[in-house]
Amino acid sequence: MPDDAKPMQRFTRDQIEEFMARCFAACGMPDGDAATVASLMAEADMLGKDSHGIFRLPGYIGRLKAGGFNPTPNIRIERDMAATALVDGDNGMGHLVVKTAADAAIEKAKTAGVGWVGLHHSNHAGAASVYSNMAMAHDMIGLYVAVGSANHLPPWGGTDMMLSTNPIAVSVPGDEEDAIILDMATTVTSYGKVKVYAQRGIEMPEGWMINRDGTPLTDASKSDTGFLLPIGGPKGYGLALIFGILAGTLNGATFGTNVVDMNADATSVTNTGQFYLAINISAFMDPAAFKTEVDAVIRQMRSSATMEGVDRVRLPGESSHAAYRERKTDGVPLPDPLLENLAKVADDLGVDRLD
User: Fold this and answer.
1) 8 and 132 assigned to the same domain
2) Fewer CB in a 10 Å sphere around the end CB: N or C, the chain?
């Protein structure tokens, strides 16, 4: 029976966050930075993004210990204009670098109406919607795009893996209704989710990956023998390409064959690229009126007649909202294989285990 079918031990957000902060601090990160990264990772777990929260801790700690991340980066704005900026992440953990960019973009949007901030020498930053959601507290729409941290997608019709999942997240606030939160890879699924399936011994559905001969690949433990499929065929490939240029090439970050696989290489600087866009709703209309209109759009979508076998129409982000509410009450479920890995991390670092 796969691990996800068994009852899992649950932990509060505080337990998870404090454990991760202990681990990062033990690797030489300043306490404040360790707490910030831990909080952003825990937020991913609360949103139900199980492949991008504490699941990533062993890999991050491995890179910190091997010198792949700079534990004390000098994150700075390198180029600065009224509505744009370029951030040099100094090879710091991506969570810190992207939060810096999000904060800067939001500040610019307060006066310029929009703020677009690009990043280079960043790193993997976890769940995309954690960052796009930040703008909503300021009556803004947030948009975040990243170059993935390993190539698992060939150009359409090719077999050489030159592209990554290159995700996008867009967060649009509503009023009485939950926000619309689009958080997706340009591939059918994220590679992080494939790794979760491999760890838990779950077979992947057909359509996520294929072997190099074009046959379906469903054994997640053999994912390195095949490649992910893009959403919408060649259209998904096109999106991955353009997002890579905007988040990578435009910012002086790696893209294409220069992308470093952080899963296989713990020491090389990845020079990951991302960008963050904040849109100030008040530059276009009254924020309260906009949120009311978004509510109306949501209700229109839900009112659609459904196809046979479909119970109701859903909106992007519904599963994240549901996960957040459920996990706030019941805690975050963690499978035994992950708990075993986390225990090894704690013991190796000489910190208290997760409890």
Assistant:
1) no
2) N
Do 265 and 125 fall into the same domain? yes
Note the pLDDT tens digit of each residue in 48-90: 999 999 999 999 999 999 999 999 999 999 999 999 999 999 9
Query: Of the segments 194-203, 206-215, 243-252, which one has the largest average pLDDT value?
Result: 243-252
Query: Which residue has 């713990």 as its token pair?
Result: 266
Q: How does the average pLDDT of the chain come out, rounded?
A: 96
Residue 137: exposed, middle, or buried by beta-carbon count in 10 A (0-12, 13-18, 19+)?
Answer: exposed
46: exposed, middle or buried (C-beta count within 10 Å: 0-12, 13-18, 19+)?
buried
pLDDT score for 355? 85
Amino acid at 197: Y
**Which structural domain range is residue 43 located in?**
1-66+320-355
Distance (Å, whole) CA 246 – CA 147: 9
Q: According to the model, what pLDDT value does residue 263 have?
A: 87
Please state, in angstroms and rounded to a whole number, the distance separating the CA atoms of residues 193 and 4. 13
In terms of domains, do 180 and 279 share one? Answer: yes
Residue 5: per-residue pLDDT: 59
- The verdict on 41 and 174 lying in the same domain is no
My answer on whether 43 and 5 are in the same domain is: yes
Structural contact between residues 123 and 149, judged by C-beta atoms closer than 8 angstroms: yes
CB 139 within 8 A of CB 281: yes
Same domain, 249 and 334: no
Residue with tokens 């060649």: 234
What's the number of domains the chain is made of? 2
* Whether residue 33 sits in one domain with residue 158: no
- Whole-angstrom distance, CA of residue 42 vs CA of residue 23: 14
Residue 168 to residues 99, 104, 148, 154, 246, Cα–Cα distance (Å): 16, 19, 10, 19, 12
User: DSSP letters along 200-269, please?
Assistant: HTPPPPTTSEEETTS-EE--GGGGGGEEEPBTTTHHHHHHHHHHHHHHTGGGT---GGG---TTT-SSS-
Residue 175 belongs to some domain of the structure: yes
pLDDT of res. 2: 46
